[in-house]
Every structure is written in structure tokens, then in C-alpha cells.
Specification:
The protein has helices at 17-28, 66-76, 90-108, 113-139, 149-160, 168-180, 194-199, 203-211, 213-224, 231-251, 253-266, 274-280, 306-311, 320-326, 328-331, 340-349, and strands at 46-47, 50-51, 58-59, 291-292, 336-337, 359-360. By secondary structure, it is mainly alpha-helical.
Length: 370
Amino acid sequence: MRSVIERSSVRRGGCGAAAVRKLLVLFLHSPPEETHFPRSSLRTREDMGNRVAREDFEWVYTDQPHADRRKEILAKYPEIKSLMGPDPRLKWIVCTMVVVQFLAFYLVKDLPWKWVLFWTYVFGSCINHSMTLAIHEISHNTAFGNNRARWNRWFAIFANLPIGLPYSASFKRYHLDHHRYLGGDGVDVDIPTEFEGWFFCTRLRKLFWIMFQPLFYAIRPLCINPKPISQLELLNVAIQLAFNAVLYWAWGAKPLVYMMMGSMLGMGLHPISGHFIAEHYMFLKGHETYSYYGSLNLLTFNVGYHNEHHDFPSIPGRRLPMVKEIAAEYYRDLPCYTSWVKVLYDFIMDDDLSPYSRVKRRLTGDVKQE
């Protein structure tokens, strides 16, 4: 059973070597049984030659850490409130991305299929995944502000067009629950289902699970927390299907394949999709949210600053590095990542990690969902 210091995709203490040395000292002077997971979470069965470490989620009986940390930081640094509010550049960046994809639709219509598939993965998947994270930003009303919430909803539907899969309206409803009730059993649909945790427990199965993550993210809400369909969701579907039909009628099948496959590939086995695993999967026991401080934040609206984002969801991604800079002592010692590719590799190859590697909590009291 590995020690926590061997999980090389996670760094502690501001990702510095000094912190690693401290962990080495602690490890060398720790009793042999002090391992990453408690013994009660171990399975003894063998599956396809790989030992499976977990048989359940990591159940906790404490509240999520972000609300308390937010109160503490704001009490010490009230100037952080000035970072809240809409990002005036966001709407222009999103419009540019939509136009670029429309241009790409036109350019691929006459390409040989091999080049359509090539550009789908190399370019289309990147920009479509980036667009999903733009929709994530818009879901927090950072395009037009809280006073124009309806404008944000319609703008998200517009940003949804080059993705091909109508999901922006549903995403907001479930994503705000994810923030409010992080890890909440039966509410937070970012948590995998019991079937996912039980079945995708070997390296080959985890690879398959990552490749088809968009499918599991689409089905999971229906299994965990189904909600009545809203009028805005119906409009989202109708507008998207109409756009897809017009695209096919105007330029044929190749732009449609480029669009749809780009979304599926970009959110599957792709460097950017490492953020799905990096954000909340428990590489280190006791930590349920992790930040990533690497170059791919430039393409993803700083979604890698995930501890900062959950602490202050109303602050646009562009300003999250300023939160880390102002309240540095709150973030420098938290585990962090420097490579999403390494996260994906470690998740697949480490037999201690699986979809079960998530913190869950049972919710009590009045649960108010979106």
C-alpha cells in the first residue's frame, strides 16, 4: 500500500521541494500501518490482475471546508469583495470562440475525412471543451452579473451552439447544487454512481470510463437526482437541434461530425479533461478539492484554481489568481497539481484510485435545490 508522498501528481506546500522533504521525514518516522486509505476501505479480491483498493466512497460527517474558509478570508481580507461581479471581457471572448468555430465548420466541409478527424481532435476538441468551461463561468452570472440573470441564461444557450449537445440550461441547475452541497449524497451529481464505483475499478475499465465521461455525466443526473424539465431546458434543446439541422443542411455531415466528435473527444481522453479528475478525486486522504496551477488554465478560464473557485464562486476565473495572491497563506500549503496529463495517468495506473475516490456526506436539514 503506497504512502501519500508517492502520489506524484499531487504536490503539497505550494508544490515545493521543502514540503516533500518534510513529508519524507514524517513517512520515515510513521508506523508502517499509516497508509493513504484506512484498512476498512480495502478489498482483497483480484480483478483482471490488478488489486482494487476501495469498495465505497469516503464518507465524512463534517461540512465542506469552503464556506468556513470563505468567511475567514473575507474577515481578514475584505478587499476580496471587490473582485466579485461580472467579467466585462468574458462575453467578447465567448463570441470570438463561437465565430472561430463557425469558421472551422465552413473550412472542414471540403476536407478529406482523415483531416476532418485530425482537426477534430487537435483543434475542435480543445475549443469545444474550453467552451463548456465558458458556460461554467456564465452559470455563475459572470458574463452580465446577477442583476441580469436571464441574459446570462440566454448567452449560455448561444455559447452552447458550437458544442452540438444541448446542456447549458441543465448544467446551471445541477452545478449550483454542486457548490452548495459539495459531496451531498443524492444531490451532487458530480459524484459517480455506485455502479461506476463498483464496475470501473481496473486500469482498463478506468481508461474506458475516462474516454466516455461525457456519456456518464449526461446519464448521472437521471440516476442520482432527476429534476422536472424546465421551459428553458426545452428551449435549449429545441434551439440546439434546429442549429444542428441547419448546419447539416448548409454544409453537410463533416461539420456536424467535427462539432459532435470534438465535444465527445474533448471531454473524454484529452489533456484538458484531466480537470474532471483533478478537481475533487481524493488523491490525498482528507482533501476533497484540489487546484491546478499550470499553463492549461489559459484555455480553461482558470478552472484549475478550483479551491479558490469553490471558496469564491462569484469571482470570475480571470481574477482567481488574485485571490490566491491576496490570501496566499490559505492556499500555499494545500495540495495542488502541475499537470492534468499526469493526473489522468496516475488515476488510471494507480490501483488505489477509482470512481469511489470521492468524499461524500449525508445531508441533513432543509436542502434547497435549484
